[in-house]
Structure formats: C-alpha cells, structure tokens
Write a structure and sequence with these properties.
The structure is a single chain. The protein is an alpha/beta fold. The protein has one domain: Spore Coat Polysaccharide Biosynthesis Protein SpsA, Chain A. It is built from 11 helices and 10 strands. The protein has helices spanning about 20-35, 50-65, 80-85, 105, 125-130, 150-155, 180-185, 190-200, 205-215, 260-270, 270-295; strands at about 10-15, 40-45, 70-75, 115, 120-125, 140-145, 170-180, 220, 230, 240-245. α1 links the parallel β1 (about 10-15) and β2. The longest helix has 26 residues, at about 270-295. The termini are far apart.
Length: about 300
C-alpha cells in the first residue's frame, strides 16, 4: 500500500478515559512539537465521553498548532461495548484499551494508514517517519515485546501454548502502525467473534494478547527506537524516538526518576503538570478519607 493514498493528513489514534486525558494531551503535544507538519496532524480520540474541562485542554492543541481533533464516542459503538464488557480489565488498565482492536471499524474508511499510540508516551522524533514505515505488505508494524514469554505464557511459561508458540515473535501494542486496508481484510472483528464462540477469547488477559492472537505471524517488526521502555534513565544515551513509560511509575509523578522526566513535564506544561498532580492527590485523600470513615 502507498501511504500517499491517505487523502490528507497524518493520522494518529489514541484511546483513553477521563482519568488519562491530561497524559493523552502530553503525548499529543509531544507529537506536535516534533514535526514541522503540524497542520496535517489529525488526532482520532476514542473515549467513553470526556468532561468539558478535559475537552478544553485537548482543544488547546488546535489553538497552538493547528492540529485537527476528531472524537469517537465508544458508548455508541456496540461491538466495542460487547467486547469491552467480556474482556478483562483492572484498576490500572481501563477497558477503553480494547478500542484499539477496532480502529479499522471506528475511523472513516478513506483513512488507509494510521498510527496508534498509548497515552503514556513521549514522542521525540517526527511522527511522519513512523507513519511512513515500510510494512512489507503486512497489516501491522510494531516493536517486539521484550517480556513476550511472560506476557504470552504467564507464570512459569506454561499457559496458552495452543494459542501462542513461544518461539513466535510477540509485539507490544503501545505503538502500532496500521495499514487499515489490510487490517480490514484480516477480518479482525469476525475473528474476535469466532474466538469468543470457541472459548479462546476468554483465555486472553488483555488487549496485547488479543492483538497478537489476531495478527499472529502477520506483522512487521520495526526499529526498537520507536517504542523504548522508559524505566531507566540509562536509555537517554540511546536517543529513543519514542519513550514508553510502562509500569505504575509514570512521568507525571513528582519524583518519578524516569528518563526525560523534566522534558515530559515541560511538554505537558508546568501549569497543567502541577494542576494534574494536585487533582490526583485530592482524589487519593478523598479515597483515603472514605476508607478511614468506613473502618471507623
């Protein structure tokens, strides 16, 4: 597929809920800052509805850079609602993550090349370089998951060997380049329905496992610099193109000690960083107060 088939724009998708609207803004702003083609950016935002304040924060990107923002209400998507209800999610991993499995159904059909990014990323290179990645006729480009054996096969690497061969490559779903023509031809939604009927879907723990199940041996491995896990400051010397802050320690924490933490704060902007910090602390104190009242 020729990327030039996209009618207009550099198309980037994110999926998040109200809790992560501010980090999503920081990721999007880092994309805007690192390209000279800002007015070509089109952000496709999948969420279950956002408050007025969050929507106003996101719209600042249009005011500052001229980027376009399109919102998709996941509450109105029956297929998403169905699979989000039956697939597992936790306190730290929202059900909204499953929207990325259905981007071929969510975004307009004239969009043929799309990049999906998580909202805990810092982009440090022009996003168009990633969008233009050569996929070799495959529907997905991604970076190999370094913890693939644990994520695919669980404790002691004993689970799901009929679903995933331990020798097969397994990708991290936090950054994906999608050829949506080929993605649609992969019949992912139909495969999800078949996996539900067979019981295979009930054995998958998260969206990353689901996506690797859908695109097993049908994806292109990209340069690891496009999704480098930001858990140690040692990676700063490797000049990553995208820093992915996996795990519970995030760069919006005051003393995270993570790579490029100060850069991240300034990308989010100082005012928003400290406002978001105060908001999260207020929620924690409120939760703690309820818990102490209940125990009393």
């Amino acid at each position: 597929m020729s990327v030039s088939k996209n009618k207009t724009g550099l198309h980037v998708a994110l999926a998040f809920d109200e809790k992560f609207a501010v980090p999503a803004y920081a990721t999007m702003r880092s994309i805007c800052l690192m390209t000279t083609r800002r007015k070509e950016l089109v952000f496709h935002l999948c969420h279950p509805g956002l408050g007025k304040k969050s929507l106003g924060i996101l719209e600042k990107l249009t005011e500052e850079f001229g980027a376009k923002i399109v919102h998709y209400d996941l509450g109105a998507n029956n297929d998403y609602q169905h699979f989000a209800a039956i697939l597992p999610h936790t306190k730290h991993i929202s059900a909204v993550m499953y929207a990325r499995m259905m981007l071929d159904q969510i975004v307009p059909s004239d969009i043929l090349r799309l990049v999906y990014v998580d909202c805990d990323l810092l982009i440090r290179a022009p996003i168009e370089e990633l969008i233009l990645s050569e996929l070799g006729g495959l529907p997905v480009g991604a970076i190999k998951e370094p913890h693939s054996l644990r994520f695919a096969h669980g404790s002691d690497a004993v689970q799901n060997h009929d679903l995933f061969d331990s020798a097969d490559p397994f990708f991290n779903s936090g950054v994906m380049v999608m050829d949506l023509d080929l993605w649609r031809k992969n019949s992912s939604l139909q495969k999800l329905r078949e996996a539900e009927k067979s019981g295979a879907l009930a054995r998958l723990a998260n969206d990353q496992q689901v996506l690797n199940f859908l695109f097993k041996n049908n994806w292109k491995q990209l340069d690891g610099a496009w999704n480098m896990f930001g858990v140690s400051r040692a990676i700063e010397g490797l000049d990553p193109k995208i820093v992915h802050y996996t795990g519970l320690n995030k760069p919006w924490n005051m003393f995270s000690g993570l790579p490029f933490a100060r850069v991240y704060r300034h990308v989010m902007t100082n005012d928003l960083f400290y406002s978001y910090m105060r908001q999260r602390w207020a929620q924690k104190f409120k939760w703690l107060g309820r818990k102490l009242t209940f125990r009393g």
